[in-house]
Design goal:
Layout (H helix, E strand, L loop, with lengths): L20 H5 L19 E2 L20 E5 L5 E5 H6 L6 E5 L4 E12 H5 L8 E6 L4 E5 L9 E6 L2 E2 L9 E3 L12 E7 L6 H4 L18
Parallel strand pairs: 1-5, 2-11
Antiparallel strand pairs: 2-3, 4-5, 5-8, 6-7, 6-11, 8-9, 8-10
This protein binds ligand MTE and molybdenum atom.
């Protein structure tokens, strides 16, 4: 391997637009907040399709057996079945998503439950979370990035049940961070006082992953 960078989350790096329109739209704003009027982060290009990026096979998860469990730093757990999730207040977020392999997709439409609603039922002062998926995928992020109307457990995309390849029956959606944080087939969330790296983060990807600061790799 001659690459200075770790393997790419989800699959091969598209050889094409290494530096998409974003690079010219946003010269030199790295490290600052999103500039007004800019919709594409640096190094990203707009994608009309919806690529599937999975590190392994698609697990077969049925709503009948699906559950979502939060474990706090004391080891106490709170779980929701599918029926319990569907009975909670539902949001319909529309968001742009940004994959670290450089595609972005504008205006994706989802339906699901805010993490604000779920975490309101959990006692915790932990600052970090490890998200776990059916199939074994993990990803870490700060709890602050899950709260404040910024993250959801979603089960519907574009008005239809979320396809299994895209994480159905339910995935995490954290659109303000690179899309590898949006764990498909989401199953658990473990609250942690100290940050620990998940699957891609252990391989060199960033612990936060803010596309507006181009936080692709550890140290960015
Ligand atoms: N469980 C799980 N979640 C995952 C992944 C994965 O491999 N397994 N890939 C991540 C990556 S790298 C991206 S870009 C998005 C891709 O979601 P999509 O296949 O719906 O486009 O899912 C993220 N969530
Ligand atoms: Mo990705």
């Amino acid at each position: 391997m001659t690459s200075a960078h770790p393997p790419v989350p989800g699959g091969p790096d598209p050889a094409g637009p290494e530096h998409g329109a974003g690079a010219t739209l946003t010269p030199g704003f790295r490290g600052r907040a999103r500039p007004e009027g800019v919709t594409l982060p640096a190094g990203q290009y707009a994608e009309d399709g919806f690529p599937v990026l999975s590190a392994g096979p698609t697990p077969n998860v049925s709503p009948a057996t699906w559950s979502f469990t939060v474990t706090n730093e004391a080891g106490a757990t709170r779980s929701w079945t599918w029926a319990q999730l569907m009975a909670l207040p539902q949001d319909e977020p529309t968001a742009d998503i940004h994959c670290v392999t450089r595609w972005s997709k504008f205006g994706t439409r989802w339906r699901g439950v805010s993490l604000d609603v779920l975490l309101a039922e959990v006692e915790s002062t932990a600052d970090f979370a490890m998200v776990g998926s059916y199939g074994g995928y993990t990803t870490n992020l700060p709890v602050a990035d899950l709260l404040g109307g910024k993250a959801w457990i979603v089960h519907t995309f574009d008005g239809a049940p979320l396809h299994a390849e895209h994480g159905g029956p339910a995935r995490l959606l954290v659109p303000h961070l690179y899309f590898w944080k949006s764990a498909k087939w989401v199953r658990s969330l473990t609250l942690m006082p100290v940050d620990r790296p998940g699957f891609w983060e252990k391989l060199g990807y960033h612990d936060l992953g803010d596309p507006w600061r181009e936080q692709r790799y550890q140290g960015d």
